[in-house]
Amino acid sequence: MKDQHIVNIGKYVFGLFFLLGNLFFSGFFITGNTLFVEWWIVIFLYGTWANLLMVLGLLFYGLGSRLKMNSCLKAIGFMLLNIPLAFLYIILGIHLTFQ
Predict the structure, then answer these.
(1) Spatial contact of 53 and 72, defined as CB atoms under 8 Å apart
(2) pLDDT tens digit string along 4-58?
(3) CA-CA-CA-CA dihedral for 74, 52, 9, 65, to nearest 10
């Protein structure tokens, strides 16, 4: 696999779960429908496991092929950008829900 393909995998996984999280999070505040919150929690939980499996897969691929380790770490870095954003959304959601 080319280095750019590996980095693009990290960008696509980041973008997918970021987009889904934003869709359900903002859907709740626009409509007030609690179904969005329930599905946002489901996406958050499945997204956590999917990102963790992708990080482990890229890490093991990088360890197996030392030449690809740098691009695997870049892809992992993109995917790890979702963690602080998810915690920010959790704190914001709790604050706005219980206000």
Answers:
(1) no
(2) 998 999 999 999 988 988 898 888 888 888 788 788 888 888 888 988 999 999 9
(3) 60
